[in-house]
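pinned: reference chain
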Amino acid sequence: MAQAANDSAIIKLLQRGDQATWRMLAEQWSGELYNLAWAAVYQAPLAQNLVNTVWAKAIRTINSVDQRLGLRLWLYTLTCHVLLDHWRDYGQQPHTNSLIRELQRLPEVMHLAVLLHLRHNLSATMIGEILGRTHRATEQLVQQGLQRLNHQLAAAEGSHETNQAAASAGD
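pinned: its structure tokens
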């Protein structure tokens, strides 16, 4: 309850345009938002640009923030929407690491749900708030995402072993 009251007070200061509060918020949250963006796109400059977009969007939308969500969920929600917009507009760039490549093959919303679950240890309830889904639908989304990721990784690993065996047999 104290966190909600604290968030509410901070949001009111932000809505009044208090620059010191905006700086404090940016210092407190930029690293975590960057980590989420980087885990989604795996490119440092792009992740930083996306976080900059999140802050610009935060400034534009601060007067319409749902204070019941609190700052953490609001910032995660903004970040996820910026990531979804980026993927829709530009697509995903494949990366060479098989885990990253297979994670990127998941549908965008499933990708984000799995990232928020694995990397940021968020509950299905919190992920559902961020993605605008029910708790049950979010649980299913995360479970299906993890299952698909496991199957894709197993298939990729089996394919890699088969290719290595074929290469060794040709030597």
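why pinned: The chain has a mean pLDDT of 84. The radius of gyration is 19 Å.
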